[in-house]
UniProtKB/TrEMBL annotation, chains A, B:
Residues 388-412 are annotated as: Disordered. This is Phosphoribosylaminoimidazole carboxylase. InterPro entries: Ade2_fungi/plant, ATP-grasp, ATP-grasp_carboxylate-amine, ATP_grasp_subdomain_1, PreATP-grasp_dom_sf, PurE_ClassI, PurE_dom, PurK. GO terms for molecular function: ATP binding; metal ion binding; phosphoribosylaminoimidazole carboxylase activity. The lineage of its organism: Eukaryota, Fungi, Fungi incertae sedis, Zoopagomycota, Kickxellomycotina.
Length: 583, 583
């Protein structure tokens, strides 16, 4: 594909997956890593790899000799040597040494991002115990004390709980090169991968939600199950963050963020100048993986599409555990029986507790199906929580008995998923009529939202709601209205989504007024009208619309129809037994 | 993942992609191939590979020593030696030597399959010129004379055009080990991958359509754009074919088939006992790739899901051409700019004409989008036809000017795609009312079918149509009816798909009779009702339903709505200029 030879500093799992992408495009990669058959080297049959530390000047120089481009799979590298190579023009360094240096030092990183007007948690540098105490006075307790260099997976962080705790934190973290950060009351941790060409052109992946256990990422959900508006905000923050990096910052970047508990504010936590754990899902779930896009970026080739090619995906990290390799194999073997699951093992020998040994990607046609699938794997992790083990046991029992229906546990899960259907009505007086639609959606496990939007009393809100519905992630809108009943048709005129209209019966005309208002739309703008006051059918129609592309809901609808038949069959039997007189 | 070590006979591109899958699961594979850094060996850093012919008894024995399982990436191997290894219990051989031997000899393969009652083209063995001539008398001309052994990509085949041609064919093919096959008048070549565990359990991939040029596969479309009923027939034929192979036939198999021009008959052409070119699309498009499932099968691990995870996919073979490596790079470089395209290069040095150097997979949310994307790559193939080059030029021009609309060329393409929407009506007298729905779907590039289904006059047909609609691949049904208007509601009672009802105005009651019949459905079964006689809106609603999950149609609907606005704006301007009196 390209004659340029790439040298990579670091040969762990990130390098391995990078080499897999490079192998597909037949691009030569040489690895610098102290371990002889490190994960990356295992899948590249070459005698050009170098078995030396990626911090060694000599080794980096040796790698540069014969490579056109140098890149990194870890930021803790020797930036001075990379800068020398850049200045001597021995090879392109992507991302540039100055970018890596900036990101290496988390304090400098934050100073830079703050200068670029990005929203961050408040922070301050601490070079003495006095400064740590002053930070506590400024930020209040608890606050977080962090090492500027070399921290990862929660290592190098200390939560200072009180003034008395300050000295202990200062000492624990080595008494130098520290900074303090105000505690952010966040509801979720989000992450976005952004890839950038040498020209500065960027492409941004979807927003994911990362779930940590013991400070290590356990799970990633893509896309994050948050409101579509917030998704757009987070993607913009990540795009702005990577776009503002110094020129020459080519490659893929992971941007970690906090979603503040106010539900609207997205704050940058930190950047990784390389492929990132939160982007592994892209291998199976996106048009172009983070690794291939990193390759394209450092070779200055056109960037690939960053879009999801499946509706939902998850990534589960597989760590070493108390049972060594068995702790690793248990979730992987379970994955083999889960449709849409793909196992990645990194070829590491020692399965020490908390060591990242592999991961499993799961793809699904809906967030509900994804949850059903991930539960079967997460419960097998060696450090699974009691709740996760219970979920696994429950899923296993469901497999024997399932009729496709959604039970109370799942209904709770679905409430935390991004809505696919919006139910709107002109007034709270319509709620009794519209409530059955909500019951149906809940019964089918369809995430939905329900609110009041009035065409006549809140016309601005109606415009805003309808215009943004599809970008927020809705797939259909159910609108109920009585009398003049303008809401469904006006919403349909503002959205490209299917709109289902429920004519609500008023005090006169028996609902025929609203039926005609809703159904008799002019050519060009359809409303899918159901029977008067029959919002059950609106809910069922929404499920059928989702089912057209999503087998989870198509199968559930088929089951529902079977259940209706069975219900009537029971009545037939009862009528036969009881007789028509006494029935 | 598994401690078993696998030895593979052959180290070309199939072995390479197999090793990629094995690398992900950290399974050790040793390659036997005469070429030192053959494609498969390049991505496996091991000193256990063997650089000897896979026909050599010695080399096979050496490979078996230290391996738990032997498998093949090519069927032209030394079966005697494999049989010896089986009988001595040195390693598992999967697929078994007897299966490989059976498939190696295409004549024996056909005899076996015919004995198992599978439908094949008529054939007869030919060991002399007299027998060739007799075959001509039996089958008529033209018929196909084939080598029993070693044939591939059209090599070893000779089309005998007349009695006079028989001697030439007999001589060309070497005068021995031949068979004759009756010419099958087929409309399409289909293929299905089937994976089988040692226990005999099988899993079947979707049906694809393969398009050959100069007897080499150029393109694969998944799923095949044929009626869903035929897809099911072809999947059953392939499943039966692989299921009937001798016990011990574990691994992945490719089944090539002909779709007879009668449109219903599917005939088996031949089997490959290994990963197959027609299954490469599975890497990006299915839950589990053919390579990973082959790995699982030969290790006797649970099989992965064979389902598509994207709506549509294509595979384009990239061959060496007159311009050597440039012929290979041209389509690959073009692919980098096509969303959903992934390049695979096999790491072969010599780009000789017709040599398989790589392939490109393309995924898309619709057959229409897939066509738009593949056209941009196929036109760059070194042996592209004039038509393919014209299509590329046309696509390039569209990129500058496109407003998302579908032009006449595309409308022709769409006619050959599997229908997503069914338009039905009770009588041909409804056609004038329903035709606008068809025009809308045509305008949006939605593949559809239109037919007469009457609830009252053809109730059996209605049941059959509605019950099979979703398994045939339809996503929505538009049903028009007048008067008592039972069709939409009855169809909705029989299918889990969304049904759109169009009330057709009769001679009395102004269509209110049909409106009420269609819209006032009982709780449990919804019909999405549009305005009386307004089948345009039914078509538009179907597009919105598809668009809910398919950006191609969502974007097109947004463009359509913009166009409506612009249309009115023009009228506003004309009214301003002309004035209300003269307008």
């Amino acid at each position: 594909m390209d004659k340029q030879v790439i040298g990579i500093l670091g040969g762990g799992q990130l390098g391995r997956m990078f080499i897999e992408a490079a192998g597909r495009m037949n691009v030569e990669v040489r690895v610098l890593d102290p371990t002889a058959l490190s994960p990356a080297k295992q899948i590249s049959n070459s005698d050009k790899h170098i078995d030396e530390p990626f911090t060694s000047s000599e080794a980096i120089k040796k790698l540069a000799d014969g490579c056109d481009v140098l890149t990194v799979e870890i930021e803790h590298v020797n930036c001075d040597e990379l800068a020398k190579i850049e200045s001597l023009g021995l090879a392109q360094v992507r991302p540039s040494s100055s970018t890596v240096r900036l990101i290496q030092d988390k304090y400098l990183q934050k100073v830079y991002l703050a200068e670029q007007s990005l929203a961050l948690p408040e922070f301050v540098g601490c070079d003495s115990l006095d400064e740590v105490v002053a930070a506590g006075e400024k930020f209040g307790y608890p606050f977080v004390l962090k090492c500027r260099l070399g921290a990862y997976d929660g290592r190098g962080n200390y939560v200072v709980k009180s003034k008395d705790d300050a000295a202990s934190g200062f000492k624990t973290l080595g008494e130098k090169m520290l900074y303090a950060e105000k505690f952010v009351p966040f509801t979720k941790e989000l992450a976005v991968m952004v890839v950038r060409r040498p020209s500065g052109q960027v492409a941004t992946y979807p927003v994911v939600e990362t779930i940590q256990r013991d400070n290590i990422c356990e799970l990633v959900y893509a896309p994050a199950q948050i409101d579509g508006d917030i998704r757009q905000i987070a993607m913009k923050v990540a795009t702005d963050t990577v776009s503002c990096l110094p020129s020459g910052s080519a490659g893929i970047f992971g941007v970690e963020m906090f979603l503040h508990e106010d539900g609207r504010t997205v704050l940058v936590n930190e950047i990784a100048p390389r492929p990132h754990n939160s982007g592994h899902y892209t291998i199976e779930a996106c048009h172009t993986s983070q690794f291939e896009n990193h390759l394209r970026a450092v070779l200055d080739l056109p960037l690939g599409s960053t879009e999801l090619k499946v509706p939902n995906a998850a990534m589960i990290n597989v760590l070493g555990g108390q049972n060594g390799m068995q702790s690793v194999l248990d979730p992987c073997l379970a994955s083999l029986e889960v449709p849409g699951a793909t196992v990645h093992l990194y070829g590491k020998a020692g399965a020490k507790p908390a060591r990242k040994m592999g991961h499993v990607t799961v793809v699904a046609d809906s967030a509900l199906q994804l949850r059903r699938r991930t539960d079967l794997i997460v419960g097998k992790l060696s450090n699974a929580s009691d709740e996760e083990r219970e979920r696994l046991a429950y899923r296993k029992s469901q497999e024997q008995t399932t009729d496709g229906s959604v039970n109370d546990e799942e209904k709770k899960d679905v409430k935390h998923m991004s809505p696919l259907v919006g139910i709107i009505m002109g007034s709270d007086s319509d709620l009794p009529t519209m409530r059955p639609a909500a019951h149906i959606l809940e019964q089918f496990g369809v995430p939905f939202e329900l609110t009041i939007v009035s065409a006549h009393r809140t016309p601005d809100r109606m415009f805003e709601y309808a215009r943004s519905a599809h970008t927020r992630g809705l797939k259909a809108i159910i609108a109920g209205a009585g009398g003049a009943a303008h809401l469904p048709g006006m919403v349909a005129a503002l959205t490209p989504l299917p709109v289902i209209g429920v004519p609500v019966k008023g005090r006169c005309l028996d609902g025929v007024d609203s039926l005609h208002s809703i159904v008799q739309m002019p050519r060009g703008v359809p409303v899918a009208t159901v029977a008067i006051n029959n919002s059950d059918n609106a809910g069922l129609l929404a499920v059928r619309i989702l089912g057209a592309s999503c087998p989870t809901y198509l199968d559930a609808m088929q089951n529902y129809m079977d259940d209706m038949r069975v219900g009537v069959e029971k009545k037939i039997a009862r009528l036969d037994v009881t007789g028509w007189k006494d029935y």
